[in-house]
Amino acid sequence: MEIRRDVFQAIADPTRRAILSLVALQAMTPGTIAENFESSRQTISKHIKILTECELLEQQQNGREIYYHINAKKIKEVADFIEPFRKMWDDRFNKLEDIMKNYKPKN
User: What distance in Å separates the CA atoms of residue 19 and residue 104, rounded to the nearest whole number?
Assistant: First the structure.
């Protein structure tokens, strides 16, 4: 049975976002990832598992070690989905900024 996880639920967690940021810089073993957190290694392993199930992380065997690295293709899919919303909110904030610049309080 294959578990399907929602990618947006996965990245909603700050620890998982931090793991993605770490692994984006270089591939890491689970132990190396866990060293960057105060949580137990078991807790970090659960976060890694969720990120892997969402295909945000991929694993690569190198001898006895497993290294996790970012799945750039999946990250791009997420970014492409979010981009229209980012543009929409940028436009709205720019319009609000223009209104506030031209606002003259009534005396």
Answer: 47
What global pTM score does this model have? 0.78
In this structure, what token pair is assigned to residue 54? 């969402």
Domains annotated for the chain, with CATH where assigned, are 7-102 (1.10.10.10)
Beta carbons of 54 and 95 less than 8 angstroms apart: no
Of the candidates 17, 4, 18, the residue with the CA atom closest to the CA atom of residue 55: 4
- Which residue type, as a one-letter code, is found at position 55? E
User: What are the beta bridge partners of residue 66?
Assistant: 61
Query: What would the two tokens of residue 24 be?
Result: 């984006």
Dump pLDDT digits (tens) for 20-73.
999 999 999 999 999 999 999 999 999 999 999 999 999 999 999 999 999 999
